[in-house]
Amino acid sequence: MKIKNILFLMAVIFAFVSCNDDTDPVLPQYKASVLTHPANDTLYVLEQVNASKVLLTLDWTAYKQTDLLVGAVSYVVQMDLAGNDFSQARTFTPVPGVTVDAESSDYTTSLKVEDVNKVLMNGFRVPADTIANVEFRVITRVGNVVVPSSASNVFKARVIPYKALDTPVVYIVGDGLVGWDNSAGAIGRDLQVFFGNTNLEVSLGQYTYTGFFKGGAGVKVVITAGDWNTAYGSGAGGSLVVNSQDNILTPATSGYYTFSVDLKALTYSFKPYAEGATATAYDKIGVIGSATAGDWNSDTPMTQITPHVWVVKGIKLTAAEIKFRANEGWAVSWGGNSTNLPFGISDSGDNIGIARESTYFISFNDLTKHYVIIDEDRLP
């Protein structure tokens, strides 16, 4: 047993021995932290478009604990529904304590919209679009032990959660675009990923893909890689039919088209995209940014699978920012609204925010500026 653990046990035993039979034992007390920000009773309306953004920042003052004999000190933010007295508290990422001689130190941490929403919806089963009265506090953790007597004052808030949209990935396969391999290994090649204007439209089954289609050939809409039984083919009057033996025929003349499908209405359409014929053809397009291994100094190259559609698989990104750029320079680059992941359009010069560190699949269409940035955990 470590010397610090022995000293702690001796202190506890001494506390018991020092008490008479009529007195409860007195254990070391911890000086509670003091929450100083934000203000009480603030109303927060959570929205999925802001999922990766900071919802609120908590500031507190923590005090030097002279009685802490064992383990590293950290501070944990807890949240619970009002009235539970933190008996069902959920905790967020701990904040490490600093080792200083000062009697007190100031700390701060931020909670993201998505993280708070998940706790409310999945942890506490709060109905979407209703007000939940919640409480936050900071509590000291010594080693792996949370010390109840160290609880700070309570910050009260009212929060309205959202129901996260279901944004499944859907694919196009066929010789009208690339080829007929519908296996998981063909994702990003023969299995081209559909784009979506917004996450909301995707959740409603509305997908789009603009590119070069070979005339008089065929495609199908694949729901699950490797599974033809759930794929959609062609039906009467431009309808989608699951497990149809008939391919969806591309227009008779090869060229650029926007292929749109509606999986709720079970319809599809091809519309000419005249701008494709005169669009700039880039030699290279890459991903760059603080989320990448090359930071803002060098690109992670993408591969052009079909004209103007670029893909990179297995790219490791941290919780930071990215952009797309052409020809390894800043003359042409694309950012976008970082709240539109995984589906979105590069509609501004802003950096695209990556919410968490993981390995991603990315597809980018330089004609329409659509992108898909999706955690590979969501792919087969």
Description:
With 380 residues, the protein is mostly beta strands. The protein has three domains: 131 residues, Immunoglobulins (Immunoglobulin-like), CATH 2.60.40; 107 residues, Immunoglobulin-like (Sandwich), CATH 2.60.40.3620; 99 residues, Immunoglobulin-like (Sandwich). It is 8% helix and 38% strand. The strands form seven sheets. Strands 2, 4, 5, 6, 8, 9 and 10 form a seven-stranded mixed β-sheet that branches. Strand 4 and strand 5 form a beta hairpin. The protein is elongated. The two termini are 47 Å apart.
Provide a concise account of the structure shown:
With 380 residues, the chain is mainly beta. The chain has 3 domains: 30-160, Immunoglobulin-like (Sandwich), CATH 2.60.40.10; 171-277, Immunoglobulin-like; 280-378, Immunoglobulin-like (Sandwich), CATH 2.60.40. The chain has helices spanning 3-17, 113-123, 199-203, and strands at residues 34-37, 42-45, 54-63, 73-81, 90-91, 95-96, 104-112, 132-142, 145-146, 155-160, 171-173, 192-193, 206-213, 218-222, 232-234, 240-242, 248-249, 255-262, 267-272, 285-288, 300-301, 303-306, 309-317, 321-326, 333-334, 343-345, 352-353, 358-365, 370-375.
